[in-house]
Write the structure tokens for this entry.
Amino acid sequence: MIIILSVIIVLLLIYQYVWPKKKYWEGRGMPTYKIKMFLSMTNVVHEMGDVYKKMKVEGQRVAGLYLTWENILLFTDLRSLENCAIVQNKRYEDKRNAQQLFDVILNSATNLIVALQESSKSDKQIDFCDVSTRYSTEMMISLAFGNEFLKVTKLCSKIREMSLRAGAFSLKTVVKQFVIDWFPQFAKRFRMSAYDSTAHKFYMKTVQEAIEYRKQSTTLRHDFLQSLLDAENDDGEKTQMTIEEIAEQVMSFFVSGVETSAVTISYSLIEIKRNLNVESKLRGEVCTILEKYNYTLHYNALEEMIYLDAVIRESLRMYPPIPILRKKTSEAFLVDNIEIEKGTPLAVSILAIQRDAEKYIEPDVFNPDRLEGNIDLDIERQHLILQSKIALALILWNFDYEIDDKTKYPLKIDAPNGILIPTEKIWVKFSPLITSL
Ligand code: HEM
């Protein structure tokens, strides 16, 4: 009975709210493109890429799409996109400076090297994405709660499972998102979250435990949790965030940070090996700089590795870990004389833009030289790739490696949880180098 009633309610809602919107873009004279209904992020990434290509062929700078119940805008022209104001989520920054972040990350990276040394003793290949995700999770736990908490709770595998779960697409999360988008007051009243509820509960519990643990010790901490506990509003006054708000921020921190960094390291590793000239130039840079710094990886040494920087940014160009950005306009504006309402959702297909032959010569070719010396990342973004840089510098310094033939190339990529991951395993065999740290 409940199921029948729910189905009737959903059909009524669709009839009442969704159906009339189906002619929204045509009514405004906006070119529209069809995109299939879906229940997975995967199709959206590929379908949006196809629409982007069609738009380019037909010379459209902007078009309206119908994505489930949303009328969204897709741009191919970045200048038109720059003209519209968008709503930014409030995001709490990690307040540590680069050196402090470096120290925490180096500690986790050393564990990664020990794990690879262990694996190199046998003749087996390892699933590198699995190892890099483990490293990335451990590092994010240290950044969020401190090293000590990691030792106390042995959280690693649970956090990995829950980060994947939190961002996963399911019928339940789609229905919840529908309610949040269409009945925001109701969703707010019942504190609905678009995240998976099991993951939500897990993060609430973990945050509560971490705060309790913190109360029992007098150590002054500089981690992400502490920056949330000390959060200030725009006028510099301290704001008391609720446990729920803190848990949401921590969950977003893990969902956004774990897989993104792990896949960046994996994509870079495979592309370096497939391009032997890149590998030898990069090894040359890492060796020369580490020798200069007495074989120790200091923060300053890492800063001097500008080719490594270009390698990682080229890998981020070819495989952007977050392939689609979703935003909302914060003001009404005109595009090609068509009025776009305030609050209109828009999507930016980073993957399609970064593989666009008009923007990059031979976009499917991995060529870090095209970015060398062109350091356009601000400090905050530099911090985000710090863990990929540290891991790759240490791997190249300590090991030679082979990608096993059973790893297919070009890599098949998909975004089942919104993060662009290789769909098949990347098998790597590591052999220690005599120059090891
Ligand atoms: C290669 C690594 C990374 C890439 C390419 C990357 C990329 C991105 C992108 C494109 C966004 C969306 C920004 C927007 O909507 O305007 C984002 C959001 C975010 N990232 Fe990263 N990121 C990386 C690593 C990290 C790391 C290491 C952390 C944490 C230490 C982190 C924390 C976050 C957070 C908290 C958000 C906001 C999520 C939200 O609004 O719900 N990211 N990242």
In short: Residues 89, 91, 143, 252-253, 256-257, 260-261, 264, 316, 321-322, 325, 384-385, 388 surround protoporphyrin IX containing FE (CB under 6 Å). The first strand starts at residue 32 and ends at 33. The first helix runs from residue 2 to 18.
